[in-house]
Amino acid sequence: MIGTLKSLRPTIGVFGRRNVGKSSLVNALIGQDVSIVSAIAGTTTDPVEKAMELAPLGPVTFVDTAGVDDEGELGTLRMARTTAALERCDAAMVVVDEAGLGADEEILFAALRSHETPFFVVFGKADLAPPRDADRDRLARDGIAAVAVSAVRGEGLAALREALLAVIPDEGFETPHLLGDLIRPGGLVVLVVPIDLGAPKGRLILPQVMAIRDILDADATSVVVKERELRDTLARLGRKPDLVVCDSQVVLKAAADTPDDVPLTTFSILMARFKGDLVAFAAGAAAIDRLRPGARVLVAEACSHHALADDIGRVKIPRWLRQYAGGDLVFETVAGRDFPADLSPYALIVQCGGCMVNRKQVLLRQRRAAEQGVAMTNYGVTISRVQGVLPRALACFPAARAAFEAAAAE
Amino acid sequence: MIGTLKSLRPTIGVFGRRNVGKSSLVNALIGQDVSIVSAIAGTTTDPVEKAMELAPLGPVTFVDTAGVDDEGELGTLRMARTTAALERCDAAMVVVDEAGLGADEEILFAALRSHETPFFVVFGKADLAPPRDADRDRLARDGIAAVAVSAVRGEGLAALREALLAVIPDEGFETPHLLGDLIRPGGLVVLVVPIDLGAPKGRLILPQVMAIRDILDADATSVVVKERELRDTLARLGRKPDLVVCDSQVVLKAAADTPDDVPLTTFSILMARFKGDLVAFAAGAAAIDRLRPGARVLVAEACSHHALADDIGRVKIPRWLRQYAGGDLVFETVAGRDFPADLSPYALIVQCGGCMVNRKQVLLRQRRAAEQGVAMTNYGVTISRVQGVLPRALACFPAARAAFEAAAAE
């Protein structure tokens, strides 16, 4: 599922003139000293790679380059290496010091644009001098984002992380597997696909197709069956499957028909992991038990779809949650990209399956909720929770199961 | 797969004033006398249904209605029934006699338009009087097709059949099953899906998805496996599958790995049946053996796709057919809706899989080839033929297999 990303983890180039503090900036972000940092211009002779965990994205690699204004024969070699680094970057930051923007930066901007590499500018020595208005205007003219940071004082690092997350292409947030990583080669997965009136004629829905494909890619076999035929199919299968994946709608029946020693999960939970942070969603589901009448619940739908009569987000989930709360709740629904900045009024946020959003959007929403201390879960996790099968449905995701149980025990 | 069609077989309403010869016309088409036909106006009191085989479409139902100008209390009742007939028709013909078009026909045209029912006009007594210029002009103004027929002399019936085929909506030509009709409830079908570089990332191709869905709709189970895992999966399956369906690319390996007593076919052959007349395609494949160097072969592609390096229609099939002919052949390729009227220069026509065309288009092309006595087959049938596995791949389609063997023995 990695689109145009050049490496398996996003690679972020750190560009700028010599001695503007590129290495210090990366080290301040990472909190460790990997490069040789000195005040002698051009210390970083070759591009140096450094990795860090950039929550909520995961690991990213910084390529800390030599200064673009390197001079002499060695400088030419360094420049060639810098250009090579540019070619494998998924995103970039251009670091400037108190001298501000000049001809070297314009050359970098042009090079980054010609490589179609998204980038932003870091004013890295904000302690020495704040960015000049002329520089801010010049960036605004081309819509180039900028942050002011003091690496030595450790100021502005949160804004820098935000800018990094914003600039990394969406596919940098993608995970390559829906479930392929759960299966051994030669394994067998049973997929339980109910065919109801809502099923598209002659088709399967996307998570089902993605699952079958991912199982093939994992050199494994899938068995596709309706819920009515599950018990009989399992009995006649000749061997125990490695995993049963069912539609959330039929999770109770599937759980009843699947032997206890066979791992079982739902397409919705697989999609919750694929499109977001399942561990955080699982922990968030514990808040369902703490809902009290009158609590506010935010239902976040990714698309403004035509609501069906028995709509999952508008009808079913509110009904289940009211039953859990033992009284009425205040539901607010947002659709599309409308996601409130202030989440503090809500006792719980329930995000939709997110088939129409990318993982980056969901992860950033989850991060915002975490920063504000608001519980956030999603449709798939909620359905398994209210049906009483969440621990079983999370059995193949031990970290998520542990997070749910820890949060529920609070 | 039946779209908006109101019945499982297309229903064609026969409308017109009393005594214009509606019943005689239908009887002339069908060649049998079902209605009471008389010269007393209004003999057909209730809509009468008559079925016929309309090649290459298959069975259609005519609803022969009472005259629209019926008078009196009984006439009102008849009119109501005529309106009810109109509501369930998929297409209609408006029959006029030597009196030509008048106010009653205009009322019918308006009613048919308001029901969005496609229709055409039949001048049914062309022996008494040819259509008037004023009437032809009036129809041309609204783009209404018309044919002149003499039911009593049996003239114009071929043109009438053409007009009928043209007016029946595309989905009237659809067949409801890709393979569901081949499987018993509780049955097991193994689908062999190779994942090569051409496979769309994270997806399956449409015939594969359609097959899985159709198997679910048939209350059966599918096992989806790559060709490499087929032998092992079959060995560990616990029971013999009812059918193995493989991608044409791997039919030799799949045939080798599947026990002889298990029916085997290809997705391409299923699609050939779904999108056309498999029996005729199978008979057409016998002409491959009779190709001689210098023969002209027409390759008909439904879409003007970007040809791949190892394109099936442009590269692979020509290569195989040259090998069969033992010398060079003259290939002509047509794309999209360009299909020659004169097919006589060709020793063979090879139609593409037709994923982008509807069954109606393919059936009409097959009919044209049959009328001109030119052999026509398709990609999927050709691939199995040149791989030497066609009889086996047609084992579950006895009529097609017999047609191939009869044509090959000629």
Quickly name the level 1 CATH class of the largest domain in chain A.
Answer: Alpha Beta
The CATH topology of the largest domain in chain A is given as: Rossmann fold
- Could you list the spans of chain A in which at least 5 consecutive residues all have pLDDT below 50? 33-42
Oligomerization: homodimer
Order of strands in the sheet with most strands of chain A: 2-3-1-4-5-6
CATH architecture of the largest domain in chain A: 3-Layer(aba) Sandwich
- N-to-C order of helices and strands of chain A: EHEEHEHEHEHEHEHEHEHHEHEEHEHHH
Strand content of chain A: 15-25%
Number of strands of chain A: 14
Q: How many separate structural domains of chain A?
A: 3
Computed structural class of chain A: alpha/beta
Question: Rg of chain A, please?
Answer: 25 Å
Description:
- Chains A, B: One of its GO terms (cellular component) is cytoplasm.
- Chains A, B: Pfam families: HydF_dimer, HydF_tetramer, MMR_HSR1.
- Chains A, B: It comes from Siculibacillus lacustris.
- Two copies of one chain form a homodimer.
- Chain A has 410 residues and is α/β, with parallel strands linked by helices.
- Chain A is built from 15 helices and 14 strands.
- In chain A, the strands form three sheets. A six-stranded mixed β-sheet of chain A has the order 2-3-1-4-5-6, sandwiched between helices. A four-stranded parallel β-sheet of chain A has the order 8-7-9-10, sandwiched between helices. In chain A, strands 12-11-13-14 form a four-stranded parallel β-sheet, with helices on both faces.
- In chain A, strand 2 and strand 3 form a beta hairpin.
- The longest helix of chain A is centred in the first third of the chain and has 16 residues.
- The radius of gyration of chain A is 25 Å and the shape is elongated.
- At the A-B interface, helix 6, strand 8 and helix 7 of A face helix 6, strand 8 and helix 7 of B.
- Strand 8 of chain A pairs antiparallel with strand 8 of chain B.
